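Most newcomers find our protein records easier to grasp once they have seen one. Nothing more is needed to start thinking about how sequence determines fold. Here is such a record, shown just as it appears in the course material:
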Amino acid sequence: MSTGDFLFELGTEELPPTALKTLSIALGDSIESQLKAAQLSYEAIELYAAPRRLGFLVKSLSGQQPDRSIERTGPSAKAPEKAAMGFAGSCGVSLAELSIESTEKGDYYVYRGTEKGRPAVELLPHMLEQAIQQLPIPKRMRWAASRTEFVRPVKWVLSLFGDEIVDCTLMGIKAGRKTRGHRFHYDHEIEIINAAEYAPALRNTGYVVTDFAERREMIRTQVLEQATKVGGNVEFDEDLLDEVCALNEWPVALTGRFEERFLEVPEQALILSMKENQKYFHLVDDKGALMPFFITIANIESKDPQQVIAGNEKVIRPRLADAAFFFETDKKKPLIARLERLKSVVFQNQLGTVYDKAARIESTATAIASLIGGNVEYAARAAQLAKCDLLSDTVYEFTELQGLIGYHLALHDGETDEVATAIQEQYLPKFAGDVLPQTKSGIALALADRLDTLVGLFAIKQPPTGSKDPFALRRAALGVLRILVEHELPLDLADLLRIAASNYSDLPALESAADEVFDFMLERFRFWFEEESISAEVYLSVHALKPRVPLDFVRRARAVASFAEHEASSALIAGNKRVSNILSKLDEPVDTRVDVALLQEAAEKALYTALTSLSNDVADRVANADYQGALGALSGLRDPIDRFFEEVRVMADDPAVKANRLAILANLRQQFIGIADISHLA
């Protein structure tokens, strides 16, 4: 079967830079799934994405679908002849070409035939149309008098299979073999004879690097080379690298500089201004301090690059001057002077103002600081100042810097290092894998802030629903758990939630909020353990006990996961499941007191003796949170348990003997349930 390379390119006005990579991947995924569904084989798919084009190359695409066998069952052989003829007609054959076959339900007409595979060129137009319609475009636009809709106006369509044009019309434009070069360097049509010459022709003639990944690495390499020239290092923001790549077809890195006086401003404000407004890469020295340089990526190879650099320096200067002005203005007023003004800033309609929230946080943070051995006065002061920078000019301009600006202003006001640091640490962790607060005041503040939000939103009946979580409560819950577990703080989560809830009043669901948040937060462990490759069954075995201390929950789960990997575990798990089933069917709780005089069988005596000899050791290990050691000790019960169920009839005729044997099983279950309900592992 013949093969050929299939090349497609959709030429447009400049595509949204933050969406380009996503659109390219989605286009490739759609084509890949459609080719597989059509059983058209190919060697590989290469994606092309640049500011004015989306495309791909399918290497060695099969020219035709393979023939496939068809079998269809029609009406019963006893059906009227008209029905049988209708079935034959739908299959494209005469009645005589059908066969009659016997089934369990009787004799039926059957058609067997071969469906000829269709040529790829007949299938590709529909695939392209489907792929374009399925692109994740949140808002489509129309242009000129056309009713066609797309993310940006479409200018040309290139579609070649081998060296032949694939006849189709997309977005109102008939496909051809012409593309266009760079908007400034070569704004002319380029005719493509076959797929193999597409990328080289655009690069060598059109000044366009079509491969997104290749262009991205070009930018990275050029930026590093420019940084080396001025003795700097680059801290790459991968999202910024993607965005800059999506803005340039022919990237050229250039280095500019700004006045050193701007370095007196918190460097994150300068970095944010350079990154967000101008898409510049900043440089740091060997100690990590910001340098007065920036690297910009030009979409043109200028004959006078110094003029381009000067233009960028002229643009960045007022941006940095604004940041410096805002910060200098903010320093003229003490941070605490903004606290009263927070009364005019609403946190949430039913939960009051940010001032109210700050007061609640102060109460909870001081309680937590006391529990973890922190400085209560520092925690209280940090809580008072925590939200004050929200009213600073710098944070108003650069909202991402909340907390950080508070840190700098607090130091300027003469606050202690721990208080200032806690203000910055209150927002940590900001995302999965982010660093945690390190100071005790910062830990107390970060916990108090999140617990207040969680309890408050649940108390007004606004928990997350499905994919909607406007207050990021899932992230807040996970942040609390990470702080408690990774800092090994043995704090009772239920108690912390009740402390937070005590700061509220007159909310519709306040009475149940702490319990609901507790359950919600324990559910977060299910996803936590997925990241550690700990099974859902292990999670359920621990969740059955609902440990109130998150650190304890994690220790139990890790011990059970380790235990489940051992050879002895399967028999013990099965035995526990059997015990659980027996005890769950009883109408009344079992008395765990065992009467030694009623032990009759050797197997029940052996199990009771083994249980008795282990009980103190297991209890000590559990008390010291050595759950792995406790499960290891209980593994010695495998043989006595197996023998007990093989040789002993639990439901004996004698009620006293039966009750005694159930008591042994209840004791056995108690030993394991002190760690986890391992019957969930069965």
About this structure: The chain has five domains: 3-64+119-204, 69-115, 212-331, 340-531, 555-681. The CA atoms of residues 69 and 351 lie 67 Å apart. The mean pLDDT is 92. The chain is about 50% helix and 15% strand.
